[in-house]
Amino acid sequence: MTRVAAVDCGTNSIRLLIHDSEAGEICREMTIVRLGEGVDATGQFSPDAIARTREALETYVERMVAEGVEAVRMVATSATRDAANRDEFFDMTRELLGRIQPGAVAEVISGEEEAALSFRGATTDLDDARAPFCVIDLGGGSTEFIVGGEGAYSTQMGCVRITERFMRTDPPTDQETAAAREYIDSLIDDARATVPLSHAATFVGCAGTFTTLSAIAQDLDAYDPEAIHCSEITFDDMRAVTAKLRAQTAAQRLENPVMHAGRADVIGSGATVVEQLMTAIEKETGGAVTSFVISEKDILDGIVAGLL
């Protein structure tokens, strides 16, 4: 087996990575489908969200066929763990993925496995001299923490979930932001009780909120994965970006050329999560850690490594 595909379907986006064991990465794609829209309130997927996700996955399957993919693994994370009508979603993925590999269907993975796969992918290109690493995967519905070999924990905080639950105004009010911070801090405390954050020497941020914040902090003219991957952003620079984003409307955020249209309305909440993370990291490490390393690689790369 030489050519494989990984698909990650989260609360906000669905993503594809096709990798060849000899040629390396063939393609990496991302589509905002907002599968988890309203799940936090209703407990199930909406018909529109299923339709958007089906359309994106059909496009990915066509790409897999064209590229000669031999095996595929698709994982579904936070939103799918929470949805009562998830069988409708699974039936759709079984139908489409079966074109690539008979019997293939999306898998709902635990938060702990999600964290482990993200850690494997996110640390692939990092210097081992900077270990121990703590990888933080900030998604739409959940955020995973993992310190290599010492523990993993998944929390129910993500940019979509926080937006829908707390920060509904555009831009969010001070009262909404304060309520969100209190909630975020409580979940970070839960993670700290399980995962030894103080043991980490390097904190690695992955997924769309972190990569977009890096692009803005670097003042990039366009979203450039090569410039973002393994970039290091100080907490001071990060705080300047997060404060500005939170104060802007979604329309104002979209004026930045690195901002994806499907992220503009929720990144204010993601930025608030990052702010609370920085405060917690400073406390846990006694101020020894003052930056994030940003990784463009994540759970997709971990899945591919397992397939190969």
TrEMBL record:
Q: Which CDD domains match?
A: ASKHA_NBD_MtPPX2-like
Q: Which domain of life is it from?
A: Bacteria
The Ppx/GppA phosphatase N-terminal domain covers which part of the protein?
25-285
GO MF, any single term: pyrophosphatase activity
Pfam families the UniProt entry points to = Ppx-GppA
Protein name, as recorded: Exopolyphosphatase / guanosine-5'-triphosphate,3'-diphosphate pyrophosphatase
